[in-house]
Amino acid sequence: MISGPDPARQVTGGFDSPRPDLRSSILVETAQDRPSAPQPPLWRFLRHEWTLAVLGGLLLAVVLTWPTLRHPASTIPGDIADPTLQAWQVAWGGHALLTDPTGLWHSNTFFPERYTYVYSDTLLGYAPAGMIGSGFEAALIRYNILYVLLYALAFIGAYALIRQLGAGRIGAAVAGVAWAFAPWRLAHSGHMNILSTGGIALCLAMLARGHGWSLRHGYRPERRRPGWALAGWLVAAWQISLGFGIGLPLVYFLLAAGIVAAGGYGISWWRHRRRPPFGRRLLVADAVGGVIFGAVTLAIAAAYFRVVELNPQAERSLAWTEMFSPPVVGLITAPAESWLWGERHAATREQIFWPPEMTLLPGVTLIALAAAGLIVSSLRIRHRVALAAGVIGTALLALGATLGGDGDPGYLTLSKHLPGWDALRTPGRMMIWTSLLLAVLAAGTLTAAAAALRRAAAGWPKWSRQAAGAVLVIPLALVVVEGMNQTAHPQVPTPPAAWEQVTGPVLVLPSDAGAFELNVMLWTTEGDFPQVANGLAGFVPASQEQTRAVTAFFPDPASVGYLRDLGVRTVLVMPDRLIGTPWEGVTQRPVDGLGITREEIDGVLVYRLD
């Protein structure tokens, strides 16, 4: 049995190693294996660990999200609901920052409401991508590329973090794949805000490196890098700008980590009767980075508070959390989108109220490796115990109100006492942290195995050492297979030809609080983002509710007068979507005497009110 810190000390390299080590973490080259001639700089760059990690992450992301990039201008992963909303969000962020930054929060949807951009997680951090290209197809292509890149960043971030903590390359690679492509994430193919976790792991890696800290070595003042610490705070701020759905737990984690670190620093000072070195530059980096991180957090929080102030119905009660709390079996159940486990877990999913938020399997291979890591690991025993406690704690929080029958103590306790936590209606998203802690434990297992294999094979011929080392590729292959998807990639409805004749503000009928509302939001990227009264969020603004009620009899004097007073200049009616809606009789109603015009363009009716 391998335990304790010794195997870890024998692992070469690492995110925190003194110099780049280009040798394999599985087998150490002997002197006769090393090249005698110096290598060209380009070749050294291409073989560098971090070059390979980035390229590997990109390749894995393309393969494991396929066929996302097969038809990026016409299809979208998941469904045609939330992904079309998020494609619009990215486009609006870029458009607003280029044309009118002061109007960023007041988007062109839900006219005439204000602060409509923060009716959902904004994905504001992707706004720079929204500045590239324009129009409907560009919005789709942009979204699909970002969808692939966010998976790559999740792998790279997790790999960097786990290397910084002291694991070997094979352990970090397996853990990175297992976290970035975990089965539970496949249920969120339509939730880019939930999938965008790469900044979490990356900022933690940078902050740990900047402060000279790792699980393997603890605090090493000589390894402090203020620039990395500042970069970590900036990445954390960027992560928060993507939304509070997963960003708020990061805020509280960094706050708790800061308190623990300060406490540990103080205890060390008291025990040794001397102040451990910290450094003015690092203190300045933390102060500047912390202020930026706090300012971004407060600015976005202020916008959300403003939404609730203007729309009291937007405030979510704890009943939402209770409704979306998964059963215990959800922790070991995969979503339908999982290629390996989807069909095998179909019967279990039928017993679950809302599978998209309640199928939380982090991966069978990951669980097995993490469990083995409690016994065989490069990590110290106290670290394993702490990580195991973290896994259990976050998994219990993920159960929400299911824990103990009411979730208090538990997730609902946080909802009652931590500012903003009550808005996090889906406890299952705590699996982000559960699976990350499992990944660290799994990396410890593989790092210890690699060290043991290296010692055992020290005197073997080169070919037999390489063959033995290849055994450690098996866990990597297993987590890759578990990350394979069978996600749908439907065609996205394109703007009708009549859209070119639209003069905003516009109302598109039917406006029935369905996915079609989100399609209309995406249509506004075609053109100069005309204002639309359409939109869909977790609540219905009062003005939108009234508009839907009044226009059920459109066109009639009352609805036409109401829309004119509201400022709407064009009404677009989609006849093929009216069946079964309150607007089913619109097309047969006359317009005589109403002072409006009606024109049919390619099967779509365009009413002009001005």
List keywords for this structure.
about 600 residues; mainly alpha; 2 domains; 4-stranded mixed β-sheet; 24 helices; about 50% helix; disordered N terminus
What does this protein structure show overall?
This protein has helices spanning 6-9, 41-47, 49-64, 82-99, 127-130, 136-164, 169-180, 192-195, 198-210, 226-241, 244-272, 280-310, 318-323, 346-349, 355-358, 364-372, 381-398, 411-417, 431-456, 462-469, 473-482, 515-523, 542-550, 557-566, and strands at 213-214, 218-219, 506-509, 570-573, 597-601, 604-608. The protein is 50% helix and 4% strand. The model is unreliable at 1-35 (pLDDT under 50). It folds into two domains: 60-71 and 143-482, no CATH class; 498-610, no CATH class. The chain starts with 5 loop residues before the first helix and ends with a strand. It is mainly alpha-helical. A hairpin with a 2-residue loop joins strand 5 and strand 6 (604-608). Helix 10 runs antiparallel to helix 11. The radius of gyration is 27 Å and the shape is elongated. It contains 24 helices and six strands. The strands form two sheets. A four-stranded mixed beta sheet has the order 3-4-6-5, with no helix packed on it. A two-stranded antiparallel sheet has the order 1-2.
